[in-house]
Amino acid sequence: VKAGNSLTRKERFAKAMAYLGRHKYISIRRYAKMTGLSMRAAEAELDAFAKGTRSPLRVIVKGKKKLYVKG
Question: What is the Rg, in whole angstroms, of the alpha carbon atoms belonging to the chain?
């Protein structure tokens, strides 16, 4: 059983925010590894988190990399 299957979306969001408390950004690959989600599912979920108008998460693009930061 992958970790992503046992964590709720709310728990995964909390995990991402905790990670961002210690790091400048989180990548899709890092989030996928942390949660057990596929790369595609991880990107879709991070995008959904960042889409909310009140979300503390936002997307930045550096070259070909898509990163997520607090802000």
Answer: 11
